[in-house]
Amino acid sequence: MHMTKPSSSPLSNFMFDIASDSFFHFAQRLEGDFPFLRVTQINLNGNTVLQSEHGGMRILCLYHGEGEVFLEKGYRTQEGDGQSLPADHYRPDDVEPQFAETLRRIQSGLDTASATAQPPVDAILRRWNESAKTFFGDISGELWRLLEQTKRPWSTDSSTENAIEELFHFHREVGFSTKTDDSWERIMVGDQLIVTENQPLRVRGNFRCFSLENVERKKTNPFPFARAPGFFFVLGGA
């Protein structure tokens, strides 16, 4: 049972005054610690196309203002575990029968779960629409809470315990949705954009962001846009 922990890096809370030299020191320190990174800053007022500057994977993190990003029909995302996706622009995948059966077993035995295991497990169940046969959102955050903040057994019932453990086999495969049209979507503080040479993004608005480009990583994260609070970094493969 292995998972990559969602990063709790202090970078996600890093704020700086654009008029001071604090960004320079931030960039200098980060590039010193991670030689494969190039750290820059963007102050946008209007529209542009964001893309790689050094041929690597570039992560842009908004820390002030807001704007919009253009996402095309067919765009795939595993978001929805935090902020709900707009229902008029996204269609969740049908639930695989095996995953649905696991969820049923957990639901029927939820009252046997421990006090610490119930909240993350219940959060997963709330994103399942049994009648519509859909499930949305990444479950990695809740599974990490089970590993990090609870103790085994998670349930006094062996069938429920086994079903909860089965969730760890599904977390990379479930919760996806597909965009049903081309449209602009709002971006704001805490949101993350990811671009490469072959995957630019059109944006517009009035915002500031800092940029981290991994010059050694050419392929992008499969999700070029992550809304807050799903904020984490993909620096070297995490």
Q: What can you tell me about this protein's structure?
A:
By secondary structure, the protein is α+β, with helices and mostly antiparallel strands. It has two domains: 104 residues, Jelly Rolls; 94 residues, no CATH class. The chain contains five helices and eleven strands; from the N terminus they run H-E-E-E-E-H-H-E-E-H-H-E-E-E-E-E. The strands form three sheets. Strands 1, 2, 8, 9, 10 and 11 form a six-stranded antiparallel sheet that branches. Helix 2 runs antiparallel to helix 5 and helix 3 packs antiparallel against helix 4.
Spell out the helices and strands N to C. HEEEEHHEEHHEEEEE
Measured distance between first and last alpha carbons: 16 Å
Query: What is the mean pLDDT?
Result: 85
Q: Rg to the nearest angstrom?
A: 20 Å
Write down the CATH class of the largest domain.
Mainly Beta
- CATH homologous superfamily heading of the largest domain: Jelly Rolls
Question: Secondary-structure map with pairings?
Answer:
Blueprint (H helix, E strand, L loop, with lengths): L21 H12 L3 E14 L6 E15 L4 E2 L12 E3 L4 H12 L9 H8 L2 E2 L4 E2 L4 H10 L8 H9 L10 E3 L3 E6 L3 E4 L5 E14 L10 E2 L12
Antiparallel strand pairs: 1-10, 2-8, 2-9, 2-10, 3-7, 4-7, 5-6, 9-11
List keywords for this structure.
single chain; 238 residues; alpha+beta; Jelly Rolls; six-stranded antiparallel sheet; 5 helices; 21% helix; disordered N terminus
